Amino acid sequence: MKKIKIEESVGSKLADKAAEKPAKTVGRKRDHTRDAKILEATIDILAEAGFDGMTMDMVAARAKAGKATMYRRWSSKAELVRDALTWMNRNHLELDLLPDTGTLRNDLLALLKPQSIEEGERKLRVLAGLGSFFSQNPESVNGGIFEPWAAVNRELMHRAVGRGEISADADIEMACQVITSMASYRGLVQRKTFDKQFYTSLIDVVLLPALKNPVTAPKEME
Question: What are phi and psi for residue 215, nearest 5 degrees?
Answer without folding.
Answer: -90, 120
